[in-house]
Write a structure and sequence with these properties.
This protein is of the alpha/beta class. 34% of the residues lie in helices and 18% in strands. The chain has nine helices and 16 strands. The chain has helices spanning 14-22, 42-59, 73-85, 99-108, 226-231, 241-256, 259-279, 308-317, 342-359; strands at 3-4, 65-71, 91-96, 114-120, 122-124, 127-129, 145-147, 150-151, 156-157, 168-171, 188-192, 202-208, 284-285, 297-302, 320-321, 332-335. The strands form five sheets. The protein has a seven-stranded mixed β-sheet with strand order 2-12-11-10-7-3-4. The protein has a three-stranded antiparallel β-sheet with strand order 13-14-16, with helices on one face. Strand 3 (91-96), helix 4 (99-108) and strand 4 form a beta-alpha-beta unit. Helix 1 packs across helix 6 (241-256), helix 2 (42-59) crosses helix 6 (241-256) and helix 3 (73-85) crosses helix 4. The longest helix has 21 residues, at 259-279. Pyridoxal-5'-phosphate binds at residues 8, 73-75, 100, 148, 152, 171, 173-174, 192, 194-195, 200.
Length: 360
């Protein structure tokens, strides 16, 4: 039994992979693969419509929002968002809560004149923390406020939606469908698929209709143009048909598992177990303030980093895979998205407890 703690591309639900395997060469009795038919075939179109409806049901997406299935993963949206939502001479507000925020900020600066940083992570007595929204330096009339609710690399999360007067844009790549949210609090939500939805290179965008009524920049890359993609039902050009199909299967699996509420409960229990193990030991540590801890990605360090390689080798020998931290931050990181069963978190904690006894 392997438990894959990869941050992304990440573990997918085993029943979804088994079903995909079973129907790989014969999809819906057609005798050919889902990858081999036209995206305009009524059978394929019906699948995409069901996928959208399932996502709408799972997230209770209001009718005045459009759902787009797009190319280019999370980073594609780093450029699509400013191109579509801000004029070149606009000001846009960005929270810097970690590495992914910083990439998004750098990309936005190519398309808009003024990228205003509202706040960044600070070191506090309680650990790394995101300042209170009341302390953010919001600009007067930003086109939007962008933030990343769950920083995948840093393991830092903002668990409340900033209450501001401009449209809120959220990079939910590593937290979409992991807990219930109120979509109406957002102007736009996007997510690269490879953490909680399906294969990489694919992205989901949920955007309030009034924000796509007019495209702000004259020259938006057409595949990234929300207005065009909305009009063409995300089929302006050939979509990633296999990724869309797999996402549709993940949505069905989620519904059968009890939806986003059930996932939130499971994710809460997995994260609590692991943080408890870390906090009760002097061998492991996590440096994020409790209020800003991620439930999806848990970075931790060993007291003696000379043991890192041994830890990773022994973990892997027990089927606990991909625990190495991001190359920017080092240490360890356990990513536990929806597909990670509770038994995976338990196996990790059991291993960590034994490892600590042996090496401390
Ligand atoms: C993984 C990730 C991305 C990047 O996604 P790509 O599909 O590789 O472009 C962006 N933002 C967040 C928060 C992520 O976790």
């Amino acid at each position: 039994m392997k438990f894959n703690f990869s941050a992304g591309p990440a573990m997918l639900p085993a029943p979804v992979l088994k079903k995909a395997q079973k129907e790989l060469c014969d999809w819906q009795g057609l005798g050919i693969s889902v990858m081999e038919i036209s995206h305009r075939d009524p059978i394929y179109v019906r699948m995409t419509e069901e996928a959208e409806q399932d996502l709408r049901d799972l997230m209770s997406i209001p009718d005045n929002y459009t759902v787009l299935f797009m190319h280019g993963g999370g980073r594609g949206q780093f450029s699509a968002v400013p191109q579509n939502l801000a004029k070149p001479d606009a000001t846009v507000d960005y929270l810097d809560s970690g590495i992914w925020s910083q990439f998004a900020i750098r990309e936005a600066a190519k398309y808009v004149q003024q990228v205003n940083l509202v706040a960044k992570v600070t070191e506090t007595a309680a650990g790394k923390a995101i300042p209170q929204v009341s302390d953010w330096q919001l600009s007067e009339n930003a086109a939007y406020l962008h933030y990343c609710p769950n920083e995948t690399v840093d393991g830092i999360a903002l668990h409340t939606v900033p209450d501001v007067s401009v449209p809120v844009v959220a990079d939910m790549s590593s937290v979409i469908l992991a807990e219930p949210i109120d979509v109406s609090q957002f102007g736009l939500i996007y997510a690269g698929a490879q953490k909680n939805i399906g294969p990489s290179g694919f992205a989901v965008v949920i955007v309030r209709n009034d924000l796509i009524a007019e495209t702000c920049q004259d020259k938006v890359c057409t595949v990234m143009n929300y207005k065009v993609q909305a009009a063409d039902k995300s089929m302006y050009n050939t979509p990633n048909t296999f990724a869309w199909y797999l996402a549709a299967e993940v949505f069905k699996w989620l519904k059968a598992e009890g939806g986003v509420e059930a996932m939130a409960d499971l994710n809460q229990r997995k994260a609590a177990l692991l943080y408890e193990c870390i906090d009760n030991s002097s061998f492991y540590r996590n440096t994020v303030a409790i209020a800003n801890r991620s439930r999806m990605n848990v970075p931790f360090q060993l007291r003696d980093d000379a043991l890192d390689a041994v830890f990773l080798r022994e973990a892997e020998a027990e089927g606990l895979m991909s625990l190495k931290g991001h190359r920017f931050v080092g240490g360890m990181r356990a990513s536990m998205y929806n597909a990670m069963p509770f038994a995976g978190a338990q196996a990790l904690v059991d291993f960590m407890t034994r490892f600590e006894k042996q090496y401390s």
